[in-house]
Amino acid sequence: LKSYARFQPSGKKQLVQVVNGLETVLEIYHNQLKHNIHLIRDYEEIPDIWGYADELIQVWTNLIHNAIQAMELRGTLTIATRKQKNGIQVSIQDTGLGIPAQVQSKIFDAFFTTKSAGEGSGLGLHICQKIINKHQGSIRLDSKPGYTLFCIELPIGSP
User: Fold this and answer.
1) What is the C-alpha to C-alpha distance for residues 137 and 139, in angstroms, rounded to an integer?
2) What is the residue-averaged pLDDT of the chain?
3) What is the residue extent of each domain of the chain?
4) How many angstroms separate the CA atoms of 99 and 133, rounded?
């Protein structure tokens, strides 16, 4: 687990179509989403960015998986994309339990988890942050009971 937490780079930078990556992950979770989760896709047209497609898919997978778990398979999941001056913004919002204020400052720490034993390693959000940092972007959280929003900002970058 410790070597996984250190997370090494993979491959070369390439042009990434972020919405395609989001849609790939949504297809993977189709069965969990189709019954009691209302999915809202709020996609604005965004430019491709330079990055590591497989690593960004890991970010989307972790965030969407956590959202589905937090909603206990019922609620609303909203995924939005926005163009910014020098990059893009991806927002993943759910109507789940929310993240308690007293642990919000720790959620990106390696091995920190609020899940029961055996349900999570505490590495998902830590790795998300490392990947976003590698892309010279940012990830932030806004959460209260019944609402969690992860907002990711990524630059267009260069090869």
Assistant:
1) 7
2) 89
3) 2-155
4) 22
Q: What is the mean pLDDT of residues 88-105?
A: 94
User: CA–CA separation, 49 vs 115, rounded Å?
Assistant: 33
H/E segment holding residue 41? strand 37-43
Report the distance separating Cα 16 and Cα 118, nearest Å: 34
Yes or no: say if 93 and 55 are a contact pair by the CB < 8 Å rule: no
Picking from 26, 24, 55, 38, the residue whose alpha carbon sits closest to that of residue 94 is: 38
Total-model pTM:
0.87
Task: Single out the residue of 64, 61, 58 nearest to residue 148, CA to CA.
Answer: 64
- 123's tokens: 């590495």
Hey, which residues does 155 pair with through a beta bridge?
87
pLDDT surpasses 50 at 16: yes
- Residue 49: beta bridge partners? 16
Fold designation for 2-155: Heat Shock Protein 90 (3.30.565)
Is residue 149 within 8 A of residue 143, CB to CB? The reply is: yes
- pLDDT class of 109 with cuts at 50, 70, 90: confident
